[in-house]
Amino acid sequence: MKQASLRLNVNGLHLQVQSVGQGPAVVLLHGFPDTHVVWRKQVAPLVAAGFRVLAPDLRGHGGSDAPLAIDAYRLDHLCADVIAMLDLLGIERARVVGHDWGAVIGWLLCMQAPQRIVQYVALSVGHPAALARAGLLQYLRSSYIMWLLPPGLAERALLAGDGYLLERLTTDRAQVSHWKRSMREPGRMTAALNVYRANIPRGIVHGHRQTPVQVPSMGVWSSGDPFLGETQMRDSARYVAGRFRYERVECADHWLQVCAPEQVNALLLDFFGVPATTA
């Protein structure tokens, strides 16, 4: 399986993108504290099904540039990076899969540029409006975010004790090892946390984020997710004017694509349709 590591100049920074396969494009968008590596168990099945997989390291992560300014990590900039990547590669339309913050970016892309998205799959995180209205239990689940916001506090805590807190996040040891290696690089933990600091204080639900999603979408939630409840994903249907499909994966934690890859891959291929014939 031939893989190319592309270094693209987008919006004044270099974006590292893994490109594998030939055919209609599938863009995989990671979240915190990940890189493209979190999709390692999805690439081969998608390529075998006839897709070209594009897995960027979002700005501040992995091999991509990490601007110093917190405002550089606003969601509008992150969305613009994805569109610029597609433009540079001459891709008119793509399927998109997003997880965690990558799922938020995917939802916004569906609202901002629906003409560029063929189908969308959100893992773990539902539509921003559904998340905001998910009630007290979801508020309590998300309360950990508040201690990620003060500069320096989370950096020290997450890397203390050889990454003890990182080890508590998922049962997948390979993913934890990757986090430890990548987050020890100077400035990388702060850059990764800046997506919270740039967006949580201003709120992620306003303006065009209330626009009904016209793109055919699927939401996949895992029952072992301690951070996000089922309601916010199920209720995403209210904000999708097009077709919305909901799927539940039992027992897997928040990182369902590495903890339950067979189930996630089967859902992706079924939703996208195999064999893939058109983009």
From TrEMBL:
Residues in AB hydrolase-1 domain copies: 24-125
Keyword entries, A-Z: Hydrolase
GO MF terms, alphabetically ordered: hydrolase activity
Cross-referenced SUPFAM superfamilies: alpha/beta-Hydrolases (SSF53474)
Keyword Plastid: no
Domain of life: Bacteria
Protein name as annotated: Alpha/beta fold hydrolase
